[in-house]
Amino acid sequence: MSFNLEIISPQQTIFNDEIDLCILPGIEGDFGILKNHMPFLTTLRTGIAYIYQNKKMVETFLVNGGIVEVSENKCTLLSEDILKTSDFKVEKTDDKKEAEKMRISKKLYYS
């Protein structure tokens, strides 16, 4: 009960594996892809992509727009700006100005 998901940026292929489910941030709202999904092409907004294998979430990515094509049990996500969420961390600070700057920059990703 799986299909192939390939996530591609201009620099590299970020993910290419068989998965059970992915939930992606569509321009009109989040949507899920399962095996035998109908073919379609859509645009992504900024948000989180959730990847599931063996009924467990195995990876998340921060996507800053892009497009997705689904066809014949293959899902291809193309994005110029995508990060594995495990590759970045939020650091704590006691400095109020720095904390405000971090809050504002973080908000840009999730608006």
Notes on the structure:
This protein has a single domain, classed as ATP Synthase, domain 1. 13% of the residues lie in helices and 56% in strands. It is built from one helix and eight strands. Strands 1, 2, 3, 4, 5, 6, 7 and 8 form an eight-stranded mixed beta sheet that branches. Strand 3 and strand 4 form a beta hairpin. The radius of gyration is 15 Å and the shape is globular. The C terminus is likely disordered.
List its traits.
111 residues; mainly beta; ATP Synthase, domain 1; eight-stranded mixed beta sheet; 1 helix; 8 strands; globular; disordered C terminus
Briefly say what this structure is.
The chain is mostly beta strands and 111 residues long.
Layout of helices and strands, plus pairs?
Blueprint: E1 3-8, E2 13-19, E3 21-26, E4 29-33, E5 40-53, E6 56-71, E7 74-78, E8 82-84, H1 96-109
Parallel strand pairs: 1-7
Antiparallel strand pairs: 1-2, 3-4, 3-5, 5-6, 6-7, 6-8
Number of helices, counting only DSSP H or I runs of 4 residues or more: 1
Overall shape: it is globular
- The domain count comes to 1
Stretches where pLDDT falls below 50 for ≥5 residues? 103-111
Per CATH, what is the topology? Answer: ATP Synthase, domain 1
Q: Overall pLDDT, averaged?
A: 85
Please give the CATH class. Answer: Mainly Beta
Structural class: mainly beta
The helix/strand series, from N terminus to C terminus, equals EEEEEEEEH
Question: Would you identify the CATH architecture?
Answer: Sandwich
CATH superfamily: F0F1 ATP synthase delta/epsilon subunit, N-terminal
Characterize the main sheet.
8 strands, mixed
Helical content, roughly? 10-25%
